[in-house]
Amino acid sequence: xxxxxxxxxxxxxxxxxxxxxxxxxxxxxxxxxxxxxxxxxxxxxxxxxxxxxxxxxxxxxxxxxxxxxxxxxxxxxxxxxxxxxxxxxxxxxxxxxxxxxxxxxxxxxxxxxxxxxxxxxxx
Length: 123
Prior knowledge:
By secondary structure, the chain is an alpha+beta fold. The chain is built from three helices and four strands.
């Protein structure tokens, strides 16, 4: 029987109660787990952000979004492990309906090059 590979995206909000370094360590632990069990498409660490509403009397959290491809049983196990961890405030793992595409790195540099090109033509 052939294994079915699907695309998923997970969002993780980690508590900053023990400091930003402890939050980064927790995020790294789960990123390593994803890399060991799935094909990582992209991991975006949004970092420290203000929450829309208080969660456990906290107004800030450390956000991370991971896009990956895996077998259908891994996302449920990943979510279970994330929910067990005391430093994790919120978790969401969803199945993507479309094929994920890694975003290009440093789009700002491309915009700067485009802005410089017309200035060179003016001379």
